[in-house]
Amino acid sequence: MSFAALAKFAMELPGATQDIKWGADWVASVGGKMFFVGGPHPDQWTHCSIKVDDHRFLELTGLPGIAPAPYAARYHWVAVSDPKALPLSELKALVKRSHGLVAGKLPKKLRLSLGIEA
After folding, report:
1. What's the whole-model pTM score?
2. Is residue 115 part of a domain?
3. CATH code for the domain of 80
4. Which of the two ends of the chain, N or C, has the fewest CB atoms closer than 10 A to its terminal CB?
5. What CA–CA distance (Å, rounded) separates 82 from 45?
6. Which residue, 85, 15, 101, is CA-closest to 48?
7. Of 93, 113, 92, which is closest to residue 103 (Cα–Cα)?
8. Strand-by-strand arrangement of the 77-80 sheet
9. Residue pair 49/36 in contact by the 8 Å Cβ criterion
10. Looking at residue 83, what is its pLDDT?
């Protein structure tokens, strides 16, 4: 599994868009809000960051290869530096949940226009 596989999965989620931020990080967003970050771009990725539920933050950051995300830990983002830290199915579930957490805070009208149910 590679981080690029997670990026491909992220782009299949409703309303997902991509761009490059800070000159080196690939970012997946929904409604203009980030939900998945990977980098460095365009080189082979060394890490990715995902927003997680509050109650999962301590659990996940206690695992080898997963740490609080720099600059975003207070918002419950984790940085995954080892693509084998969790099974691919669980990493995909975390990306999908991150998308849901971010999309859930968007205005209802925007969510509906992106094809995301309320």
Report:
1. 0.93
2. no
3. 3.90.1150.30
4. C
5. 10
6. 85
7. 113
8. 16-21, 25-30, 33-39, 47-51, 77-80, 66-68
9. yes
10. 84
In a domain, 110, yes or no: no
pLDDT of residue 1: 53
Q: Give all strands (DSSP E) within the chain, no chain letters.
A: 16-21, 25-30, 33-39, 47-51, 66-68, 77-80
The Cα 98–Cα 36 span in angstroms is: 7
79 forms beta bridges with: 49, 67
DSSP-derived letter for residue 60 is: H
Q: Which residues of the chain have pLDDT under 50?
A: none
- Please check whether residue 37 lies inside any domain of the structure: yes
The amino acid occupying position 16 is A
Q: Could you list the residue range(s) of the whole structural domain that residue 41 is in?
A: 3-104
> What's the confidence (pLDDT) of residue 118?
59
The predicted pLDDT at position 28 comes to 97
Task: Look at residue 67 in the predicted model and tell me its pLDDT.
Answer: 97
Residue 100, domain member (yes or no): yes
